[in-house]
């Protein structure tokens, strides 16, 4: 039986290489895409899953809902609560802080950047991390301890066994000597420890002085928790509201607490680490997150590709069944029972599926590195997993693609077949099925194509959208870690003196800001008291020439106006007085001003301080395009009296290449701050992380769209080939009766393309709904214009036409006499 | 003369073999003639009929129809010629399986600009003539061989062609059905249509006005039957 099945498949391949080839190729492509995307989806779902007791680990997030702003969740939180957790919740087994820090190692004047985390000694025990060298229990108990990742050990020393070596660490100018106390083995799964190069202990001094350890309102890093039982997470989560109300409450004028009713603006919430990767999309201060539905859609595309491949197989097999009708009829006449024939045809489908599965695996091997580099994810072909998945895929696609054709074939009535002059097409039902499958295939393919177009448009729209300032010719430096007005002045002067620099400014916010400070301001106007929490920035004289924001109303700051200058941080915290400020248009709207001009001259107040709005600027986007723009207030410092708080210099230049300019700026920076690494970069580079994720996923969709279209076209091609073979005779008759080649061509194209057009109309509403949902996740987004849909439809129709055109032309041009002979 | 063939040659080249299906055919056929072509299998009868029907082109020679040279015409012009002048009856019926009998017959008209209602009435009339009106909505596979042949004849005559070509119209039929078909052809001829028919049956050939015998791609004899 087995041998006869293989023989039969071989004979089929020899006799109809086109059909069998298309069948196998389509299915193999479907299987290849399915396997690859499944690997990707599995990878995305595996974040943090490999850590021991992952279901008991979690992170504590803060949720802020300040007046006038959209509530947001932040992973960087205050550490003020840390000591209370274990006291108040016996379910919590362990608590550690986990704070990102930028570390540099200086060698021969060159800075090498390392991503560092400061944490507590319990960290390694909590995550049950394995060390290559060193003792996880004691590695961070000494304040000068240092744990390196494998990769970092290799970068610094060229080997793994480097216990006891000394490393001089430079944290933005502040230098410490650390001793290597541990080398971390590769983490068990992607997630928490991705891109962590070095781990250091929190120093006792930091614990005492750093504001996030002291004040509820200040934040710097993450809190990781381990619970005794997985179900404790929910129960503790439910009690956090009361926890905040008891622990964070205090008198209104107290800096440490959050006032008498803290939960009005502030709550805590627990995120299990297993959910972090998807959850973090909506959390601030996180990276490496992705929308779950995007990953699910990618998985769906993989599954659809497999279904398309199977549909193809069914389609071609039922079409081809006609060619074998006589064989079946003869076998039946000779006494073969139906179930034996059914088994034979099922077996053949299985063999085809097996071959396709093996080719699919080869495709998967070829696609995976490409997908890995497109997505930037470390996916590889995991044979343990593929070994389980592939046989399932082969069997199910064999069944899916074999049952119907086998039923059709084994069900032929011999008398009817042998009596007929031509090969049967399987009747009107089979024709309906074939067209239905083509409609389904193209609906899916067109749907994916439309989504791809929309994603592509949206990503390029975001990249090119006006961000409220002029990005070209602008370079932005590092944060200065300085409150020293003299140094800040010298920095300005040094940078300004560089040839090619046209203007220099300092600001406390930059593209992808290093820290955000928000304060609530109040306006009493015609619409009553309106409170708005605003993001604070402070800018220096040439800000307008450097960033070139668009002034919508009023005037810009002027060093000549005494009231423009200020307030200092000191004055802002404690003093009272009157100052002039500029706000962004979002703030103007939040305060209820209909037009920007209405805001000019109006007063904003916080405590006893009064601020006169002298100008309104267009919103400046320094944050992710997914986040909505914050209302913003700009203070001014002419650098005569008031120092900036950790300012970031920015430079506008002309007449010099960007590379050369950056090099000159970095060199100048080193003369003033030799211990702080300098990297002047364009705004786009700083904001790259906001855009690249969507772009990479857009590329995945493009791949999916190409695969889906390709498979669908294979199917269409096969069907057209089959129909062409079947209709040679009919076309001969039509032409004998006087039809011209042109008329015949139109007739055939109409028949071939009808399912494609039906598919277009089915795909549009589905993709419209999907994409409206996706676009809603962006603050600024494109309109879903019909042009995109028409483009996709036009493209699909064109591709489909090209697919069938060759055969159609051939058929339409055939000499009638020859066509009529062909039986 | 309605048809004038001179020096018609038809070669088939396939790989190495070259078959001469027709060689130096000289044949003139006048208006209203009824010609029977006879000859052994493979002597080139169908090939000759195909060339007369312009669905095949001669390798050499000239084919004039009503004084007009056809061999140089483009494909589209030939298609126009066929739909305006020809009715074709095939040996193997050549009805389209997916269309009903009615639609099959209508096929001969839809490539012309004839209003739908007129097409309908002409189709109905043609079906009446051959006696298959009661099978209008059936598919070819639901009809007997004789009925299919009559449907094929209806399709050939519905366009009221000047020339009817019939390739063994009675070949697949029993005596009674064969006689019926011959009756129809004779009636059509009496009404003025020119008919060229290939047949293996001497008795049917005798019903024609003229008989042409072929052998190995050549015409050996052409005799006029006594009426
Ligand atoms: N397409 C072709 N390619 C090669 N040879 C052909 C082709 N068509 C016909 N022939 C040859 O031309 C010759 C004449 O064929 P034709 O079909 O005209 O014969 P016929 O007289 O109609 O025979 P029958 O009475 O069996 O129908 C035959 O020898 C045949 O093999
Ligand atoms: Mg013949």
Automatic annotation (TrEMBL), chain A:
The keyword Ribosomal protein does not apply. The chain crosses the membrane at residues 20-41, 298-319, 340-363, 383-410, 431-455, 700-724, 745-770, 782-805. Keywords: Cell membrane, Membrane, Transmembrane, Transmembrane helix. It is found in: Cell membrane. Residues 300-411, 705-816 form the ABC3 transporter permease C-terminal domain. Pfam families: FtsX (PF02687), MacB_PCD (PF12704). It is a multi-pass membrane protein. It comes from the Bacteria. Residues 21-240, 444-622 form the MacB-like periplasmic core domain. This is ABC transporter permease. It comes from Acetobacter malorum DSM 14337. The lineage of its organism: Bacteria, Pseudomonadati, Pseudomonadota, Alphaproteobacteria, Acetobacterales.
Automatic annotation (TrEMBL), chain B:
PANTHER family: ABC TRANSPORTER ATP-BINDING PROTEIN YTRE (PTHR24220:SF648), IMPORT ATP-BINDING PROTEIN (PTHR24220). The lineage of its organism: Bacteria, Pseudomonadati, Pseudomonadota, Alphaproteobacteria, Acetobacterales. GO terms for molecular function: ATP binding. InterPro entries: AAA+_ATPase, ABC_transporter-like_ATP-bd, ABC_transporter-like_CS, ABC_transpr_LolD-like, MacB-like_ATP-bd, P-loop_NTPase. The keyword ATP-binding applies. Keywords: ATP-binding, Nucleotide-binding, Transport. It comes from Acetobacter malorum DSM 14337. The keyword Membrane does not apply. This is Antimicrobial peptide ABC transporter ATP-binding protein. CDD domains: ABC_MJ0796_LolCDE_FtsE (cd03255). Residues 3-227 form the ABC transporter domain.
């Amino acid at each position: 039986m087995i041998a006869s099945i293989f023989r039969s498949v071989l004979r089929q391949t020899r006799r109809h290489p086109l059909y069998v080839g298309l069948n196998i190729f389509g299915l193999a492509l479907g299987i290849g895409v399915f396997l690859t995307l499944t690997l990707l989806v599995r990878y995305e779902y595996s974040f943090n899953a490999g850590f021991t007791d992952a279901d008991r680990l979690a992170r504590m997030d803060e949720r802020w809902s300040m007046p006038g702003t959209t509530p947001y969740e932040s992973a960087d939180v205050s550490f003020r609560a840390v000591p209370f957790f274990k006291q108040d919740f016996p379910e919590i087994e362990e608590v550690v802080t986990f704070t990102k820090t930028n570390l540099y190692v200086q060698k021969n004047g060159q800075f090498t950047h390392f991503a560092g985390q400061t944490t507590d000694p319990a960290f390694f025990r909590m995550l049950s991390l394995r060390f290559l060298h060193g003792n996880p229990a004691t590695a961070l108990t000494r304040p000068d301890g240092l744990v390196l990742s494998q990769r970092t050990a290799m970068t610094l020393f060229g080997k793994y066994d480097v216990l006891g070596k000394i490393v001089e660490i430079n944290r933005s100018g502040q230098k410490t000597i650390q001793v290597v106390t541990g080398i971390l083995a590769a983490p068990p799964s992607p997630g928490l420890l991705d891109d962590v190069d070095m781990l250091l202990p929190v120093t006792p001094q930091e614990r005492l002085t750093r504001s996030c350890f002291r004040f509820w309102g200040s934040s710097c890093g993450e809190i990781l928790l381990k619970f005794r039982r997985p179900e404790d997470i929910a129960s503790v989560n439910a009690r956090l509201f009361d926890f905040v109300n008891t622990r964070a409450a205090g008198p209104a004028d107290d800096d440490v607490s959050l006032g008498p009713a803290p939960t009005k603006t502030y709550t805590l919430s627990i995120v299990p680490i297993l959910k972090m990767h998807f959850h973090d999309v909506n959390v601030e201060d996180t990276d490496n997150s992705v929308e779950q539905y995007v990953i699910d859609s990618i998985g769906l595309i993989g599954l659809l590709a497999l279904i398309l491949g199977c549909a193809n197989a069914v389609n071609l097999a039922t079409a081809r069944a006609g060619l074998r009708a006589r064989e079946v009829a003869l076998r039946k006449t000779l006494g073969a029972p139906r179930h034996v024939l059914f088994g034979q045809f099922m077996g053949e489908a299985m063999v085809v599926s097996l071959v396709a599965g093996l080719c699919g695996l080869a495709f998967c091997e070829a696609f995976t590195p490409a997908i890995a580099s497109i997505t930037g994810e470390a996916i590889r072909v995991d044979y343990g997993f593929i070994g389980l998945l592939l046989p399932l895929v082969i069997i199910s696609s064999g069944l899916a693609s074999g049952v119907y054709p086998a039923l059709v074939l084994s069900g032929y009535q011999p008398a009817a077949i042998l009596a007929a002059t031509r090969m049967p097409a399987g009747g009107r039902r089979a024709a309906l099925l074939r067209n239905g499958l083509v409609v389904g295939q193209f609906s899916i393919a067109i749907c994916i194509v439309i989504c791809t177009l929309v994603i592509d448009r949206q990503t390029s729209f975001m990249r090119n959208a006006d961000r409220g300032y002029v990005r070209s010719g602008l370079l932005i430096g590092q944060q200065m870690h300085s409150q020293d007005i003299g140094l800040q002045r010298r920095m300005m002067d040094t940078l300004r003196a560089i040839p090619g620099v046209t203007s220099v400014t300092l600001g406390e916010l930059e593209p992808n800001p290093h820290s955000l400070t928000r304060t609530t301001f109040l306006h009493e106007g015609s619409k009553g008291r309106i409170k708005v929490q605003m993001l604070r920035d402070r800018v220096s004289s040439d800000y307008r020439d450097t960033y070139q924001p668009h002034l919508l109303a009023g005037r810009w700051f002027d060093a000549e106006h005494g009231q423009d200058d200020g307030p200092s941080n000191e004055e802002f915290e404690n003093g009272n007085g009157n100052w002039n400020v500029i706000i962004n248009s979002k703030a103007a709207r939040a305060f209820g001003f209909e037009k920007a001009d209405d805001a000019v001259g109006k007063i904003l107040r916080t405590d006893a301080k009064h601020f006169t709005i002298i100008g309104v600027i267009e919103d400046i986007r320094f944050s992710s395009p997914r986040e909505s723009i914050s209302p913003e207030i700009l203070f001014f410092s002419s650098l005569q009296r008031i120092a900036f708080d950790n300012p970031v210099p920015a430079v506008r230049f002309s007449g010099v290449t960007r590379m050369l300019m950056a090099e000159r700026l970095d060199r100048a920076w080193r003369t003033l701050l030799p211990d702080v690494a300098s990297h002047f970069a364009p705004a786009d580079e700083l904001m790259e992380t906001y855009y690249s994720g969507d772009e990479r996923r857009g590329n995945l969709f493009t791949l999916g769209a190409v695969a889906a279209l390709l498979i669908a076209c294979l199917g269409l091609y096969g069907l057209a080939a089959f129909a062409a073979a079947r209709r040679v005779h009919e076309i001969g008759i039509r032409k004998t009766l006087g039809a011209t080649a042109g008329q015949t061509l139109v007739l055939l194209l109409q028949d071939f393309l009808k399912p494609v057009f039906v598919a277009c109309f089915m795909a549009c509403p589905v993709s419209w709904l999907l994409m409206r949902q996706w676009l809603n996740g962006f603050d600024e987004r494109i309109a879903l214009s019909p042009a995109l849909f028409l483009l996709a439809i036009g493209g699909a129709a064109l591709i489909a036409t090209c697919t069938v055109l060759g055969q159609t032309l051939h058929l339409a041009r055939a000499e009638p006499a020859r066509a009529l002979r062909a039986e | 003369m309605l048809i004038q063939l001179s020096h018609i040659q038809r070669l088939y080249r396939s790989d190495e073999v070259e078959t001469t299906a027709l060689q130096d055919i000289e044949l003139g056929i006048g208006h209203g003639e009824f010609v029977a072509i006879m000859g052994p299998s493979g002597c080139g009868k169908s090939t000759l009929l195909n060339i007369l029907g312009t669905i095949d082109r001669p390798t050499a020679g000239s084919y004039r129809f009503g004084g007009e040279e056809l061999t140089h015409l483009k494909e589209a012009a030939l298609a126009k010629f066929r739909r305006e002048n020809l009715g074709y009856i095939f040996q193997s019926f050549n009805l389209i399986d997916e269309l009903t009998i009615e639609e099959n017959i209508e096929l001969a008209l839809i490539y012309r600009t004839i209003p739908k209602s007129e097409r309908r009435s002409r189709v109905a009339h043609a079906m009446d003539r051959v006696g298959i009106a009661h099978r209008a909505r059936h598919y070819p596979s639901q009809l007997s061989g004789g009925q299919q042949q009559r449907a094929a004849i209806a399709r050939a005559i519905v366009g009221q062609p000047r020339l009817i070509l019939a390739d063994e119209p009675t070949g697949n039929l029993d005596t009674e059905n064969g006689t019926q078909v011959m009756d129809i052809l004779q009636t059509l001829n009496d009404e003025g249509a020119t008919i060229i028919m290939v047949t293996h049956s001497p008795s049917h050939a005798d019903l024609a006005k003229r008989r042409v015998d072929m052998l190995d791609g050549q015409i050996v004899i052409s005799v006029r039957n006594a009426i």
